[in-house]
Specification:
Blueprint (H helix, E strand, L loop, with lengths): L1 H16 L7 E11 L17 H5 L4 E6 L7 E3 L2 E3 L6 E3 L6 E5 L6 E3 L2 E4 L1 E9 L13
């Protein structure tokens, strides 16, 4: 299932940005996130700060998010915000919704603090550098 989802997202990103999906590789960190209103324990847990994925993670060229819970039903706050000059653009997570974007400075973003409930998502990231590639996760 994980490999199939990754492949489908990878193909859609490649189609949207006009590149070959064979030139894209899964990279780390690709991760599951569970965000709620508890206090952050480390600076990495402070997800609400504006950031650029390419700066934060280095290997990212494309970032995708697969949402697993619904804004306003499962949690409050937690919307994804692109911080564009002049006007922000906000994505309200919905279970099954996928958003993706290039990971460079053109896409400064943050996540609003979750006020109640739990926000679940999977971040699946891609690189164009085969030296930064990882294999699909394997169940052991």
């Amino acid at each position: 299932l994980c490999s199939d989802v990754r492949r489908r997202i990878q193909e859609k990103i490649a189609q949207t940005f006009g590149i070959s999906s064979s030139a894209m590789y899964l990279t780390k960190p690709t991760f599951f996130s569970r965000i709620n209103s508890t206090e952050a324990k480390t600076t990495h847990d402070e997800y609400w700060h504006p950031h650029i994925d390419k700066v934060t993670y280095g290997s990212f060229d494309y970032t995708s998010l697969l949402y697993l819970s619904d804004y306003a039903e499962d949690f409050g706050g937690g919307r994804f915000v692109f911080m564009d000059e002049g006007s922000n653009k906000t994505i309200e997570p919905r279970a099954g919704r996928v958003s993706f974007f290039t990971s460079g400075s053109e896409n400064l973003h943050r996540v609003e603090k979750v006020r109640w409930g739990t926000r679940y998502a999977i971040t699946i990231s891609f690189t164009c550098n085969p030296g930064h590639s990882i294999g699909d996760p394997v169940l052991t």
